[in-house]
From TrEMBL:
Repressor keyword on record: yes
Keyword terms, alphabetized: DNA-binding, Repressor, Transcription, Transcription regulation
Organism of origin: Pseudonocardia xinjiangensis
Ranges of residues in domain HTH tetR-type: 13-73
SUPFAM superfamilies xref list: Homeodomain-like, Tetracyclin repressor-like, C-terminal domain
InterPro entries tied to this protein: BetI_C, Homeodomain-like_sf, HTH-type_TetR-like_transc_reg, HTH_TetR, Tet_transcr_reg_TetR-rel_C_sf
Protein name: TetR family transcriptional regulator
Length: 200
């Protein structure tokens, strides 16, 4: 019995991954407004009914896609405790991911930008950005406690600035891939935050 349940779960996970990939591809190719359950199912090789079974509706699909795509931007942080090293790894890793801007990353950026004018998307991305800033605030506070981050800095302000800078660079790259040298920017930005956050 346990083996059968595992096989069913594996099939479910495989179907969900295929549906999310299809949704991300459609967002990149045609924008979120053109995203429908039927199109997602067709692109992934499933029926619309399977998409409905997994997500219920478009809003739930977009929410799940937002969470899945955001995860792609936060690589390799879980093995470090909160603090300056983890924050700098996030900055470096985020920009490193931009060098290989895959479909999930592109979809996230397009959804994030569209959230500014789409009331149904805005709450999803406000929540995701708040979680991002909260994580950064934890790193900044831990760095202050460790004596490696300037205690005069306001963690909220720094977190807003970092998220704004990273998202802004990503959107510029999406708009003009030839105009942004990601590796050069990566070195400059990571070094910039190391200097700015250091105690004076």
């Amino acid at each position: 019995m346990a083996s059968t349940r595992r096989t069913q779960q594996e099939r479910r996970d495989q179907a969900e991954a295929a549906l999310l990939t299809a949704a991300a591809e459609l967002v990149v190719e045609q924008g979120v407004r053109s995203l429908t359950l039927a199109r997602v199912g067709q692109r992934a090789g499933y029926s619309r009914g399977i998409v409905t079974h997994h997500f219920g509706g478009k809003q739930a699909l977009v929410e799940r896609l937002a969470r899945a795509t955001q995860a792609a931007f936060v690589p390799g942080r879980n093995d470090l405790p909160p603090g300056l090293d983890r924050l700098l790894r996030l900055v470096d890793g985020y920009l490193g991911e931009l060098a290989r801007l895959g479909v999930f990353n592109q979809a996230f950026l397009l959804l994030w930008a569209e959230a500014a004018t789409q009331p149904d998307l805005a709450p999803i991305f406000r929540e995701r950005d708040e979680a991002f800033r909260a994580d950064l605030r934890d790193d900044i506070k831990a760095g202050i406690a460790d004596g490696v981050v300037d205690p005069g800095l306001k963690p909220d302000d720094v977190a807003i600035a970092i998220v704004g800078q990273l998202r802004g660079i990503a959107l510029q790259l999406l708009l003009d891939p030839r105009g942004v040298d990601v590796e050069q920017v990566r070195r400059s930005v990571t070094g910039y935050w190391r200097r700015v956050l250091a105690p004076t």
